[in-house]
Design brief:
Helix content: over 70%
Structural class: mainly alpha
Order of helices and strands: H
Oligomer: single chain
Largest sheet: none
Radius of gyration: 43 Å
Number of helices: 1
């Protein structure tokens, strides 16, 4: 009778230990999974942020480069036009002077 009780107690103890071990293992696995998911999410967010920052920087750089190129082209065109106008004016003045 007492032997049976002791045997049952031991059996129940072992059962409970195994149950607790399994429960703890599962809990740890889930905790680690969640931690890893969050870590990966944050990593990906940062990666995407950096990528978009770089993309935007490059875009604005190209935009300003094109803007400056166009501005310089227009300035040079106007300068050349004015220079040519002055040259022709001087030429005609000299011609007119010679004619007189």
């Amino acid at each position: 009778m007492i032997e049976n009780m002791i045997r049952n107690m031991i059996r129940n103890l072992i059962k409970n230990m195994i149950k607790n071990m399994i429960r703890n293992m599962i809990r740890d696995m889930i905790r680690n999974m969640i931690r890893n998911m969050i870590r990966n999410l944050i990593k990906n967010m940062i990666k995407n942020m950096i990528r978009t920052m770089i993309r935007n920087m490059i875009r604005t750089m190209i935009r300003t480069m094109i803007r400056n190129m166009i501005r310089n082209m227009i300035r040079d065109m106007i300068r050349n036009m004015i220079r040519n106008m002055i040259k022709t004016m001087i030429r005609t003045m000299i011609k007119n002077m010679i004619k007189c």
